[in-house]
Give the backbone structure.
Amino acid sequence: MSKSSVEALCLNAITKCFGELTANDAVSFSINKGEVLALLGENGAGKTTLMNVLFGQYTADSGTVSVFGQTLPPGNSRAALDAGVGMVHQHFTLADNLTVQENITLGTRPLSSLRLNYSKARSRILALSKEFHLVVSPDSRVGSLSVGERQRVEILKALYRDVKILILDEPTAVLTPQETNDLFATLRLATSSGLSIIFISHKLHEVMAIADRVCVLRHGKKIGEEWIKNTDKHSLAKMMMGTEAKSPQILPSEPGTVLLELKNIVTPNVGSVPGLKSVQLALRSGQIIGLAGVSGNGQASLADVVGGLSKPVTGELWVNGAAVENWSPRDAVDSGIARIPEDRHTTGSISDFDITENSILERYNTELFSQNGWLDWQSSRAFANRVIEKYDVRCPGVDTPIRLLSGGNMQKLILGRALECNPTIILANQPVRGLDVGAVNYVHSQLLSARDRGAAILLISEDLDEVMSLSDVIYVISNGRLSPKFNRGKMTPAQLGVWMGGQGFDEEITHAP
Amino acid sequence: MEVLEIFFTASFWAAVIRISTPLIFATLGELICERAGVLNLGIEGIMVAGAFAGWMAVYSGTGLWVGVCVAMFVGMLFGFLHSILTVPFGLSQHVVGLGVTLLATSSTYYAYRLALPEVTSPPKIDAFQPYDIPILSEIPFIGPALFSQTPFTYLAFGLVLVTSVVLYRTPLGLAVRAAGENPAAVAAQGLSVTKIRMGAVIIGSGFMAMGGAFLTMSAFDSFFFEMVNGRGWICIALVVFGSWRPGKALLGAVLFAAFDALQIRVQQTSFGSQMPYQVFLMMPYLLSILALIVMSRRAEVPAALMVPFNKGER
Amino acid sequence: MRLEPIDKPSLARSLLPPVIALGATVAIASFLAMLAGANPFSVFGLILNGAFGSKFAILETLNRATPLIFTGLAVAVAFRAKFWNIGAEAQLYAGALLTVLLGTGLLPWPSIAILPTLALFSILAGAILLLVPALLKTRFGVDEVVTTLLFNFIFLLFVSMLLEGPLKDPMGMGWPKSARLLPEARLPRLVDGLRLHWGFGLAIFSAISVWVVQSRMTLGYEMRAVGLNRQAAAFAGIPVNLVLVKTALLSGGLAALAGFSEVAGLKGSLTLDLSPGFGYTGIIVAMLALLHPLGVIFAALFVAGIFVGADSMSRAADVPTYLADIMLATALLLMVLAIMLTRFRIVRN
């Protein structure tokens, strides 16, 4: 690991506000050549905003960014790129219908140029791929790649442009533990050749594993900066959260009756999303069933079946002790299934509807809120008021358009809308994605209370830590197949990681009688 | 002459190529806009404007090719109007497109009335004359069919090739395609999505106007109302039919023109003269709908078509 | 340049952009009028006078607004659900066709029976006509913009075929025109002595009905939800395809009523020039009304006024009538921009 004392990057008193929200408050730090600096903080701490300022996607209200001593013009991605700053965003910026090579070479030659230099680019990509252990085929269509492979393309994009400072925004959120190790190996190769890396994360064990130094952000401010060798997880956690994080108390539970069961369910593949392949799953009352897995392995297919959005091709779905004949979102809701969708913006709510209209989205046609085709706005508003009060949704009133709510409050509304109807089965799909600590704890405690009251909860999450801490039993999903059932506390992340990467299934097949 | 015999005359195929020319220009233009992610419903109006602008320039004394350039320029102006509203401001591409069609059409008619207030029958200009390409035009059958067209038609075919090469083999073409697939990817690589999309719409609109100009400067030699008559809308279907590829779009335009040329001739056969002429006139539109249905299954739509891009959106 | 949403627009913010848009429209039109050699002030004076300056003018404007209210509603209903119905023109003719088919002697009933029947069958004709593109969209994913547009051309040719063939008026001296409607099949006047027929009343009633449906009925809620976020609507269990079909039926039916109203109220028979583009103008009306059903009434009156006024102005001032179309297209584009500026702030990067 060659580290020099050459300062590669310096952020000086960066402040950025969005309306009344101060996302970054006079944040400063610097990074030397060949160093890995971790930017640690919870969701909402301001990490991504800060990096977007650095990369030129946002313009800071005040403060400067300088790369190798040269101040960067603000709000100019091109200048940042030319100065050697590269960023791998949390949500990849790749064009699915173009090839790997096309994605990598996009924008690397002047638009007035007449030639693509196809073969030269190709050999360069292959050379970089070999040097940094990032295996991809340049001619593959990006849309056909797995999440891990796509990330490699994103990193190659930066390397191809001779990046000197590489920013990675929550890169391990979508990787199995093994892929994370591979990524760290690549990063170490990169730093040994002089690259500086800013590693954004909220995962303490990863920060401890890969970083040289760590800078902690909380609520937009920089709380502190440490050398990794001088600190530990507890101190960092304290800096990150402010106090000792209190995980919700989890009482042991006695699993009750089976409320929902999937028997040999098969669903077709849809594009690149794998369908379910002969899935057996039972949801028991009073239990949290956690589904771990890398995104894109069939979680969406499973959520669609449980949530009423798709009917299985073969197999049976049993709800409340009887096989279902007709299955639709309304049937699911009527059967007592509450659904918290993956994406509160695109699927969970309608941004231009107000809180009342969003509250009745699933049940507007029941006698609760309408009669003979006429809506009962009075009952609807009363219901909405009940929800926002009971579930601590901070808002000016039930007539507010929902897009004015913060992510956390929107999620609380969606949660409350679902729980207020006393569901017996809860499908929670990425329930705390993108939420700040307070909202995360609230949602988790609500789920646990529901479980204590006897509900069966299917928790789907890409965050292995979340799954492991909350679930009574865990399954791993890979390519549409379910692993065996693992009870709480019996498996380590590495062991689960084997299943997440698919190897567990293959071994099981070779050992089959 | 009976129906089948029509296919074996060179004059039929020559007519096909001629009829396909405005469709080729306009389809190519729309294809470029949509590849960059912008649906341009101004196509019908821009063709009208181009038809008038080119013709008017020649009527006022300029040369034919100057007229073509004038038409293209007018098209680019409307393209600029469309793109400035839809790209940086992100307004509805449907509404803006329809508004541009209405504006282009009505301002064209207004200008025509102002320029030629007393005419009853539209005045004529000296249109493009066919140019026989040496040697090639002497090949039996194919010669008179393909190589005795006006230079304007040769330009159309040439543009298909140029567009294809630029789109697939240059950095600019890659950027245009990427803008239509994922503008975030384009922005992340330091390029301006706004400039790329606006540029594509402006150039595409220029091509559309040239397609309109062909009608007044080559196919017919005067301008009259209801000249474009829905060809623009048909080209939107042809873009889908051609899977957003220039080569396939060319084939689609030729195929369509063949049906159009066919129905004119079938009307004169013994079979055809028994049916009301409106049935034949309906055919092009029915065919376009059929083409859309056939192609709808295999969607190779640019992924970000009609999705506005707001840089830095949280 | 970037767009940032404004949470609470001030009053000035909400009113200023549309006012400026209309002002710019007038300015551009004035310039064009001057190009034609006319004095812009007198041009606008003539337009206003021609639209509202006399009892005759006002009645003419109201008559012209009637079909525009229907097509404006048709388009507004469809666009709200993000169903781009550009085929109101064909649906209008479908309604007119049914009116003439049934009302020229096939059903010798008294007014009280035949008029609702004609209206009903007109609605059905328009609804079924729009059903085809709607089903093509829900079943095959075919974009409805092009299909509804192409249907306009196809259906008009079909009507032309019928008017030159089976529907030709035997007493029409060879013109492609249908027979005249029976006297019982004519919509009566709203007020005796005034040249305004019950079509106008029906139009107002339709606008109010659509408003009630949209704001108070589950169907309206579903249509709005599907239009704003189809994915979320589907997730919540709203039957998206069924809602789109219902929207299409409603929209097609409303546009068809324009045809019924024009034939039974105003013209008395069907000719190919029944509609000078009411279907397309309906789009402008709907957009100017911001897709609000009650707003459609005012927008239709405004647009009708411009057309009627421009007709009269054109005869007097020798300025081509297309000035009206230019004004409306400009108003449309500027209004859409202005509306956006009331909700978003432009931020320099």
